[in-house]
Design brief:
Elements (H helix, E strand, L loop, with lengths): L21 E5 L32 H9 L3 H15 L7 H33 L2 E6 L2 E6 L8 E5 L7 E7 L5 E6 H4 L1 E8 L10 H5 L3 E6 L10 E5 L6 E5 L4 E2 L4 E3 L3 E8 L5 H4 L10 H31 L15 H5 L2 H16 L5 H14 L1 H4 L14 E2 L13 E4 L6 E12 L2 E3 L4 H4 L6 H12 L4 E4 L17 E4 L3 H12 L3 E6 L2 E5 L5 E13 L4 E8 L4 E7 L1 H4 L3 E3 L2 H13 L3 E10 L1 H15 L5 H12 L3 E13 L3 H10 L3 E5 L4 H10 L8 E5 L1 H6 L2 H16 L6 E6 H8 L11 H10 L3 E5 L3 H12 L7 E5 L5 H6 L2 E5 L6 H5 L2 E3 L4 H38 L13 H11 L1 H10 L5 H6 L15 H26 L13 H23 L5 H23 L13 H6 L2 H68 L1
Parallel strand pairs: 15-28, 15-32, 25-27, 28-31, 29-30, 30-31, 32-33, 33-34
Antiparallel strand pairs: 1-8, 2-3, 2-4, 4-13, 5-11, 5-13, 6-7, 6-12, 8-9, 9-10, 14-34, 16-17, 16-27, 18-19, 20-21, 21-22, 22-23, 23-24, 24-26, 26-27
Family: Belongs to the cation transport ATPase (P-type) (TC 3.A.3) family. Type IV subfamily.
Cofactor: Mg(2+)
GO molecular function: ATP binding; ATP hydrolysis activity; ATPase-coupled intramembrane lipid transporter activity; magnesium ion binding
């Protein structure tokens, strides 16, 4: 064979293409022999991992840039700069301090999180690793590892980078690895050493290797790797293929293997694990979108106020007598300015004066509410699973309220609705059914050739590993020595169930040793089969095969897979009987697999080897070539039989789906299983009911009719539902038909609206089952519903890696901590132990989150309208002079201190309805659907309520101030006393308003609500009771105390608070009266129904009694 440089293309060698996107790794940093190829030392990164976002030097500028990209922060920065540049009525501190507080809190939070990442990075980068250099093992830090270094890894150690396995302590050159930190799969996976080096077990032997590795550049795909290793022997160089079975990934752990030697090929941030650190796309909740829309409205209101006041100021000053008061005359320089410049400056000054209508602190409060509120999910004991020992996890708190808005739920079947705990039920061989617990009746007749082959096929065609335990007196017992102390492990629960089923039927798989698979047959004889090739399973082929040689020298290809993948490749066998049994088991909800074989001659085997080797040595499109080779090999099969495995429904899965339906959600099941199996599960889980009329949009039907006709037939059927037909419809669609719907033929002029017709059909179905779905199709379905004209909120839930695409696509993604690994849980927004926990997460936590944050957002805008509108009215009474109504301290602390804690606590612990009621009555979820509490009518109501309260506060105080004998000594109040009176009424009103809206009272509520009011009073007494040396003015000195010394002031505060809260009290009284009426009428209806039922029962008893008496009389 020939060897080529990574940078030189040759076309005459086997498997070589114009493939330049590659790297050459020199094992042990050794140069190739002279004359073989040019030695070009490439530059690779070191093994340092960097997951942190900032450094010590760039933290401040980078963090500031990111924070000021937010519109609200940038807006307040502009306002703050305007206050610094021009003469404004309020101090720059009033805008600068809240902004500084928001920016500082966020920076501290993000800085602390990044410091933790730095700390974790350093612990990883400084971890010791063992490297073979000059025939000796030396120890160095992980960050100093280089591409080409040969690493020694011992049992239970993690791999420091991506490695190619050269040799292991096991004789067959294999090692066992767990990839739990990568994809969550705790099962042991087998990896293989390069055949030419697997016998090298010492440092000196490893150091003698003279070879290079040519492989692809780093790719994020964990399960794909293409390369080859070139050995420089005494004669011509030899090339061997390298694949994913030779690649050990960083973060995986060595198990059940004493040690291995491996060479580093990808280091640092080029490892596959690091390349998978990419951030997920940012999801935004409906509440956040509403907040931004409201912010734009309030910004328009702010600009309108500033324009109105600017215009009114110049209208006011048009009269020469009102030009400027004597105590605030303009300077000569100001008079000589152009009127446009003066008007613009005044406009900016009014913008600054009214800018507090935009609640900058709302964003911080919302973030704190989401972050702290997420802990209620993690602390929920009802969402703790004792079997797994796991609690619910929150991977992002940005979508808490979205849990209360879900309209569509897309769920996987296997491992999500079902337990993914496989149990072998039966197998069918040539029409004969074998059930483990009736084995004695089955084997009373002489075994047939196909039966023997079938059992051996299932014992050989798998990737199961045998794990042995030393449990009896410290002596290691093998599986064939009396009582078994071994058990099977595999990445697929189906395979374990099948091998264990064969064990119960008399054929026991023992081990794989020295490339030989050992089986213990019914006669307790050990049979050895040489494992020649493994044609691995993939989701496209939906089958796997092995090529083995028996001890007698016969060659067999054994193949197992889905019925749709096996039946088209079968040329003989009892197909009809087996197909009938497969369909019967599928209807019963069992998972089925078909098994076939093909005897091979030596010549055929040589052709297979050439075909596979040619594909394996390809450096470009290797997967495609292997798929083509597998397709050519797995043909002309003889059908042996089929298996049936049960995957039981998860606990309370049916109850959960029924509750979701009652809550108004539509549930879709997206699965790769066959239609019959999935449909049986849907019936068992109450997704479909017995009276549900099933509509089929499947390949079988589209073969009989055109897709166009089928769609229009189904459309006419569901339209009858709209015309008064009360039939409950359920739709079943398969992957092939979905592809046709989403990508219609361009030749068909009527095909443009297929997608809309399909969506219309789905809208009128209570449940939809999508079977034979590829992972990408699951995401396409979710995207299709998301993009429909209603724009519904979607939720996707699954437990496997094949569900990640739809989890990332949906508005809310939930991962199940299942047996298919943790990849779904890691990529999700939330993770729960079992499907049943979805009920409480949505109906209780989601309901509460949405109610709380909706109140928080509306309340923030409301209290800021109450705060600023009096300032706007005040300008009409001060000649539009930009005089502030409130003191600087009040302006600064209103949103930060006086009114922030009560609403934050409310948004964390409020329960407007008892938790048990929410669980028992899922229909309450419908009341908050479609963002109902943040619609424009409710927003306008809160805004008008704020305007009303502001008018009551301002004009109430204004007319009360008209009394010149307001104080006992006849002294008149000034403008700061007037502003303080309005502000006092304001703080008490908005706090009491929140207290009126609170349904769930605890000691914490009392402490925070009344504590906030006490803090305001104490602060005002201190602020106005002391002459502060750092202030240039003392305008608030003794103002608050003087106001409180007045009886009329106390009376006016009480009256104004009562008048402001009057609409809320009236609304609450009317609401409670309506609720009581509803309860009364409901109870009356129930009483009437009970009375009617009792009457019917008594009449029935009377009829039965009369009938019995007539029978007795007849006798």
């Amino acid at each position: 064979m020939c060897v080529y440089s990574a940078f030189q293309s040759k076309s005459h060698c086997v498997g070589e293409e114009n493939w330049v996107d590659s790297r050459t790794v020199y094992i042990g940093q050794k140069e190739p022999p002279p004359g073989t190829e040019a030695f070009i030392q490439q530059r690779f990164p070191d093994n340092r991992i960097t997951s942190s976002k900032y450094t010590f030097w760039n933290f401040i500028p980078k963090n500031m840039f990111e924070q000021f990209r937010r519109v609200a922060n940038f807006y307040f920065l502009i306002i703050f700069l305007v206050q610094l540049i021009i003469d404004t009525p309020t101090s720059p501190i009033t805008s600068g301090l809240p902004l500084f507080f928001v920016i500082t809190v966020t920076a501290i939070k993000q800085g602390y999180e990044d410091w933790l990442r730095h700390k974790a990075d350093n612990s990883v980068n400084q971890c010791p690793v063992h490297v073979v250099q000059h025939g000796k093992v030396v120890r160095k830090q992980s960050r100093k590892l280089r591409v080409g270094d040969v690493v020694l890894v011992k049992e239970d150690e993690s791999f420091p980078c991506d490695l190619i396995l050269l040799s292991s302590s096991r004789d067959d050159g294999t090692c066992f690895v767990t990839t739990a930190s990568l994809d969550g799969e705790s099962s042991h996976k087998t990896y293989y050493a390069v055949q030419d080096t697997k016998a090298y077990n010492t440092e000196q032997e490893i150091d003698s290797i003279h070879a290079t590795i040519e492989c692809e550049q780093p790719q994020p795909d964990l399960y794909k790797f293409v390369g080859r290793i070139n050995f420089y022997m005494d004669s011509e160089p030899v090339a061997r293929p390298l694949g994913s079975e030779n690649l050990l990934l960083r973060g995986a752990t060595l198990k059940n293997t004493e040690f291995i030697y491996a060479v580093a090929i990808y280091t640092g941030m080029e490892t596959k694990m690091a390349l998978n650190y990419q951030s997920k796309s940012q999801k935004r909740s409906a509440v956040e979108k509403s907040m931004n829309a409201y912010l734009v409205v309030y910004l328009c209101i702010l600009i309108s106020k500033a324009i109105v006041n600017t215009v009114m100021k110049y209208v006011w000053q048009a009269d020469p007598n009102r030009d400027e008061p004597w105590y605030n005359e303009r300077t000569e320089t100001e008079r000589q300015r152009h009127i446009v410049i003066r008007a613009f400056t005044d406009f900016l000054a009014f913008m600054v004066l009214f800018n507090y209508i935009i609640p900058v602190s709302m964003y911080v409060t919302v973030e704190m509410q989401k972050f702290l509120g997420s802990y209620f999910i993690m602390w929920d004991d009802e969402m703790f699973d004792e079997e797994l020992g796991e609690r619910a996890m929150v991977n992002t708190s940005d979508l808490n309220e979205e849990l209360g808005q879900v309209e569509y739920v897309f769920t996987d079947k296997t491992g999500t609705l079902t337990e993914n705990n496989m149990e072998f039920i039966e197998c069918c061989v040539d029409g004969h059914v074998y059930v483990p617990h009736v084995i004695l009746t089955v084997f009373c007749r002489p075994p047939q050739e196909h039966e023997e082959l079938f059992f051996r096929a299932l014992c050989l065609c798998h990737t199961v590993q045998v794990k042995e335990e030393e449990t009896v007196d410290g002596i290691k017992h093998g599986i064939h020595q009396g009582k078994s102390t071994s058990f099977y492990i595999s990445s697929s629960p189906d395979e374990v169930a099948l091998v264990e089923g064969m064990k119960r039927l008399g054929f026991t798989y023992l081990r794989l040793k020295d490339s030989h698979m050992e089986i213990l047959n019914r006669e307790d004889e050990i049979e050895r089969f040489e494992l020649l090739e493994v044609l691995t399973f993939d989701s496209v082929r939906r089958r796997m095969s092995v090529i083995v040689r028996s001890s007698s020298g016969r060659l067999y290809l054994f193949c197992k897979g889905a019925d749709s993948a096996i039946f088209p490749r079968v040329i003989s066998g009892k197909v009809d009987q087996i197909k009938a049994r497969v369909e019967h088991n599928a209807v019963e909800g069992l998972r089925t697999l078909c098994v076939a074989y093909r005897p091979l001659s030596q010549e055929q085997y040589q052709e297979v080897c050439q075909l596979l080797n040619g594909a394996k040595l390809a450096l470009q499109d290797r997967d495609k070539r292997l798929a083509e080779a597998y397709d050519l090999i797995e043909k002309d099969l003889i059908l042996l039989g089929a298996t049936a495995v049960e995957d039981r429904l998860q606990e309370k899965a049916a109850d959960t789906i029924e509750s979701l339906h009652k809550a108004g959600m539509k549930v879709w099941v997206l699965t790769g299983d066959k239609m019959e199996t999935a449909a049986a599960t849907c019936y068992a889980s109450k997704l479909f009911h017995r009276n549900t009329q099933i509509l089929e949009l499947t390949t079988k039907r589209t073969e009989e009719q055109s897709l166009h006709d089928v769609l229009f037939d189904l459309s006419r059927t569901v339209l009858r539902h709209l015309s008064g037909d009360c039939t409950d419809y359920g739709l079943i669609i398969d992957g092939a038909t979905l592809s046709a719907v989403l990508r219609p033929s361009h030749e068909d002029s009527n095909s443009g609206n297929y997608k809309e017709i399909f969506l219309e059909i789905c809208r009128n179905c209570s449940a939809v089952l999508c079977c034979r779905m590829a992972p990408l199709q699951k995401a396409q379905i979710v995207k299709l519903i998301k993009a429909s004209k209603e724009h519904p909120i979607t939720l996707a839930i699954g437990d496997g890696a094949n569900d990640v695409s739809m989890i990332l696509e949906a508005h809310v993604g939930i991962g199940i901590m299942g047996k298919e690994g943790r990849q779904a849980a890691r990529n999700s927004d939330y993770a729960i132990p079992k499907f049943k926990h979805l009920k409480k997460m949505l109906l209780v936590h989601g309901h509460y989150y949405y109610i709380r944050i909706s109140e928080l957002v509306q309340y923030f805008f409301y209290k800021n309208v109450c705060f600023i509108f009096p300032q706007f009215l005040y300008q009409f009474f001060c000649g539009f002079s930009q005089q502030p109504l409130y003191d600087t301290a009040y302006l600064t602390l209103y949103n930060i201190s006086f009114t922030s804690l009560p609403i934050l606590l409310y948004s964390l612990i409020e329960q407007h309805i008892n938790m048990d009621i929410l669980k028992k009555d899922p229909s309450l979820y419908r009341d908050i659907a479609k963002n109902s509490l943040l619609r424009w009518p409710i927003f306008i109501y809160w805004t008008l309520l704020g305007v009303y309260d502001a008018i009551v506060m301002f004009f109430g105080a204004y007319f009360l101030f008209d009394n010149t004998t307001f104080t006992s000594n006849g002294q008149m109040f000034g403008n700061w006393t007037f502003g303080t009176l309005v502000f006092t009424v304001l703080v008490f009103t908005v706090t009491f308003k929140l207290a009126l809206d609170t349904h769930y009272w605890t000691w914490i509520n009392h402490f925070v609500i009344w504590g906030s009011l006490i803090f305001f009073v104490v602060f005002s007494l201190l602020w106005g009771g002391i002459i502060w040396p750092f202030l240039n003015y003392q305008r608030m000195y003794y103002v608050f105390m003087q106001m409180l010394s007045s009886g009329p002031a106390w009376l006016s505060i009480i009256l104004l608070i009562a008048a402001s809260l009057l609409p809320d009290v009236v609304k609450k009284v009317i609401w409670r009266a309506l609720v009581l009426c509803r309860i009364f009428f409901t109870n009356t209806t129930i009483s009437i129904s009970i009375s009617i039922s009792i009457q019917k029962y008594l009449i029935m008893l009377y009829i039965r009694h009369s009938h019995l008496e007539s029978k007795i009389s007849g006798r």
